[in-house]
Amino acid sequence: MVTALLACAAVGCATPEAPKPMPMLPPVYTHAGTTSAAQTGSKGLVWWRAGELPVLDAWVNTALARNADLAVAGVRWRRAMLEARLAGAQLAPTVSGAWNTRVARGLGSGQADPGSGSTGQIAVSWELDLFGRLGALQDAASFEAQASEQDRQAVRLVLVASVTDLYFQLSHANGRVAMAEASERDAQRIVALVQARFQAGAEGRLALHEALQVREERAADLAAQRQAATVLRERVRVLLDGASVPEPEPRTLPELALPPVQPGLPAELLGRRPDLRAAQWRLQAAGARIDAAVASYYPGIALTGALGSSSRALLDVLANPVATLGIGMTLPFLQARTLGIETDIARTRYEEAAVGFRKALYTALGEVDQALSARTRLAEQEVALRQAQQQAAEAARVYEARFLVGLLPLRSWLDAQERLRTAEVAHASIRLAQMQNQIQLSQVLGGGWMTNRYGLVYPGHLGRRDAEDFGMNGRKSRGHAVDPG
């Protein structure tokens, strides 16, 4: 044993180097604003009171129960948990048994052959994990299972966000249909008015053609808006895995006040986003595999024990048991070249996971900053477009009044109506963009209001120790599983 250990040391069984520093995080988000935590309340990004949008609740609940992507993610998580249990079973003794019976008779005499008899054996083997190889492999499997659970939570979060986004998109599309229907009715009213004035000699043929042209254009726009709403309904049905869309269908965008946002500190994002938690767990798993590769240099020791017996008489097998004990040792360091390559491969996989983690982290920080910036700019646009719509409506009323008394041609009134329609569509679109931004902001912050409403459960914010070394629950690897940079 001593000789083996010395030989192992001679070929370089060294522990990995110390971890590098964690990635540098900004102290605050660039576009976080100055909203205090006291102003936001304790519910996070809660949009509406319970039951205020029951149809949306029904959509989300149906999607969570039927969506295929979420079901696949759940299956993968269960498989990862089973693989972790299988890896843990390697640390326990292995029990096996065998029973053999042989009966032989001479063809001529019919007497039993001397080789007839029965044998039975029960064997126990146990590999002593003196150097932590099996423990490291168990940790790696456990970390992968935790990452798979975070993958499932990420799919769940994206699903809820997608359903909510489609709900507001369909609300907006139905609102556009309603606006197009009202616009077509206005065009029909104008055609009837101009026809009457034309027959009375108060309008020329040009005005009649202009009115008819506008009516047909608005009829075409109505058909296009109805088709857009139909496409969205089919997208919802796919997201609900073929289930019928819960009724009643939203007809207009709900009047919901957007809540103030307190995004917290950038470092807290690590404990809130499931994709970052998954990358973090996989970084841990890659570090544990390095530990396992390094531990593979050390000798492997296995204890074996067996209890067996044999007899020519079937019932006498247990009468003469024979016990055996043994110890075996493998010397893997004799294949130092192969082990060195395997260790280097494990290190490259860890480096790949570390780069992926840093990329995911900085991408997440950028997504939050972009969503916060867009929130501010969209609010400014909404105010301006709401005022523009009000001015366009007033101008359209003035143009209509002047046309009716003959002070303006029909084209001036039609142009004013078109400007009003454009302003209404722009304002409705910016309101949709605000709600979509709220969904995006909730998603990039790791759940927000969706966590409370739809049961999305994530780990709590990282503690001080976690912020320092990205440590996770469970065994901490020797210097690699905490190396993000």
Index terms:
485 residues, Outer membrane efflux proteins (OEP), disordered C terminus, alpha+beta, four-stranded antiparallel beta sheet
CATH architecture: Up-down Bundle
Mean pLDDT: 75
Number of strands: 4
| Name of the CATH first level | Mainly Alpha
Q: Tell me the helix content.
A: 55-70%
Rg, alpha carbons: 36 Å
- How do the helices and strands follow one another from N- to C-terminus? HHHHEEHHHEEHHHH
Number of helices: 11
Query: Which strand order does the major sheet show?
Result: 1-2-3-4
Q: How would you describe this protein?
A:
By secondary structure, the protein is α+β, with helices and mostly antiparallel strands. The protein has a single domain, classed as Outer membrane efflux proteins (OEP). Helices cover 59% and strands 9% of the residues. The protein has helices at 2-10, 37-40, 54-66, 68-89, 133-199, 205-239, 274-295, 336-404, 410-444, 449-454, 464-469, and strands spanning 94-102, 117-128, 300-311, 322-330. Strands 1-2-3-4 form a four-stranded antiparallel sheet, with no helix packed on it. α3 (54-66) packs across α5 and α5 (133-199) runs antiparallel to α6 (205-239). The radius of gyration is 36 Å and the shape is elongated. The protein starts with a helix and ends in a 16-residue tail after the last helix.
The gist of it:
The chain is α+β, with helices and mostly antiparallel strands and 485 residues long. It has a single domain (16-92, 134-296, 336-469), classed as Up-down Bundle (Outer membrane efflux proteins (OEP)). The chain has 11 helices and 4 strands.
